[in-house]
Amino acid sequence: MKLYSTQRKSEDVNFEEAVFKGLPPDNGLYLPSVLPLLPLDFWHSLESKSFQEMAFLYANELLKDEIPENILKEIVYETLSFEIPIIETEENMYVMELFQGPSLAFKDFGARFMARIMSYFLSISKKEINILVATSGDTGGAVAMGFFNSPGIKVTILYPSGKVSNLQEKQLTTLGANIHALEVNGTFDDCQKLVKEAFLDAELNSKMNLSSANSINIARLIPQAFYYLYAYSILKSENIPLVFSVPSGNFGNIGAGLIAKKMGLPIDKFIASTNANNIVPQYLKTGIFNPRPSVRTISNAMDVGNPSNFARIHDLYSGNLEEVRKDVVGYWFDDIQTEKAMQDVYEKVDYLMCPHTAVAYLGLKKYQEECKEKSTGVFLGTAHPAKFMHEMPSNLSNKVIIPDSLANIALKPKTSTKINAEFADLKNYLFKN
Ligand SMILES: *Cc1c(COP(=O)(O)O)cnc(C)c1O
User: Fold this and answer.
1) Ligand 1 centroid to 215 CA: how many Å?
2) Closest to 16 measured CA to CA, from 198, 260, 217
3) What mean pLDDT, rounded, does the chain reach?
4) Distance from Cα 384 to the centre of ligand 1, integer Å
């Protein structure tokens, strides 16, 4: 598989290079030069397969020249060994729970797969890398847990002191081994700036192999298509269209689904559901992509003012708005609507949703109300409600049952190193460790 940059100003690379570079030097994003169009027989044949088997078959179509089949199979089977419940909440509405992995958020799919892919390449090249990542909360836990004990990889996670929830902090600071947490006396933006400076620092880069675990990495994107295949294999029906509502921030999750659709997966529509950070729904309406500083909402893992995967989606459709509109519908909802949805669904069907999942629910509901044609709708549940209890109305958060894994982490002592938001401090730390 060759990958090109959406900016088209840097050279094509192979998969291994794209994984370790993360971003092309021209600041575009990597996309496969050729997306194989798979016949209907392939998609129909998934019906009789397990989730892991179909995930492997799909990944193998993209990666067969990059990773030996037996190894890819092992990676898929080991990284994706958790349940994906699909639950009917109302007639023609299903929630697909993508949060049964170790960090209780859908980012486990991407982070775990990427960690194993990197370790595989490093075992062959006999290299070691240092991963630097800045987190405002949710990504950090998935990365820490995904890369925990990965051979050849040291991970340093920077997070803003006092600005992530207690449970999120514990997910980063209690693992030990190859996972190091740096508690930065500053904001999330400071953390991101420090990481950026590190990648540009010649001395640091001459002494260590730095890499990122950014959400735009192609190895995080590929596994985020697997569950669309799975839902399709279970819910498809001859003449009722299948639609997905995806709670979106950086648009990686929906982007992965659109790639699968380009490869032939018979899905009728994707609903891009956002909070007040409605850059993409506005683009779909007006044709103008107008990034803005993000605003704070209760679905804060989607507080993104410049969705980085938009460049991929734009390129998949050759920048043709009409073509994008055929496949993607966009809606946005404010916090009041989101809270009301959490309350309503709990009262009606006794189901608790995190705020992100509630935004997806609202998007699907609105689509099915506006669209005359009957459809089977799936909204993606991206985080366990226990991870966002502080963002939920108290009558609901009182009802949340905290999973044992999270309860146990809360009891463990945290280990972090405090630094100031100064690049010299970060550099010093990296050299010493
Ligand atoms: C990251 C995240 C999202 C948004 O996913 P994107 O791929 O960035 O669009 C939604 N919900 C939760 C819980 C997340 O952590």
Assistant:
1) 10
2) 217
3) 94
4) 12
Q: Which residues have CB under 8 Å from 104's CB, separation 6+? A: 383, 384, 386, 387, 403, 405, 406
Residue 332's closest CA among 258, 247, 257, 253? Answer: 247
**Local structure of 250: helix, strand or coil:** coil
The rounded distance, in Å, linking the Cα atoms of 249 and 305 is: 8
Q: Using CA positions, which residue lies closest to atom 1 of ligand 1?
A: 301
Shortest-distance Cα residue to atom 8 of ligand 1? 250
Give residue-wise pLDDT tens across range 271-292: 999 999 999 999 999 999 999 9
The answer to whether residues 114 and 260 touch, using CB atoms and an 8 Å cutoff, is no
Q: Is 138 in the pocket of ligand 1 (CB under 6 A)?
A: yes
C-alpha distances (whole Å) from 63 to each of 17, 55, 258 are: 13, 12, 18
Alpha carbon distance 12, 24 (integer Å)? 9
Nearest atom (ligand 1) to Cα of 139 = 15
pLDDT at 215 over 80: no
* 375, pLDDT greater than 90: yes
d(CA 210, CA 353): 38
Helices (H), 317-422: 321-327, 335-349, 355-370, 394-397, 404-411
Q: How many residues does the chain have?
A: 433
- DSSP character for 400? P
Q: What is the DSSP letter of 23?
A: S
The best mutation among 97, 98, 138, 143 to test binding of ligand 1, ranked by most ligand atoms within 8 Å of the C-beta, falls on 138
Domain limits, the chain = 84-103+220-404
Q: What was the pLDDT predicted at 314?
A: 96
Would you tell me how many other CB atoms lie within 10 Å of the CB of residue 423? 17
Q: Cβ-count burial of 161 within 10 angstroms (0-12 exposed, 13-18 middle, 19+ buried)?
A: middle
Say yes or no: domain 84-103+220-404 is CATH 3.20.20.30.
no
Distance 251 CA to ligand 1 centre (A): 8
Residue 267's contacts (CB-CB under 8 Å, 6 or more residues apart) are: 228, 232, 242, 243, 244, 257, 260, 261
Model pTM score: 0.94
Ligand 1 mutation pick, 246, 253, 309, 354, max ligand atoms within 8 A of CB: 253
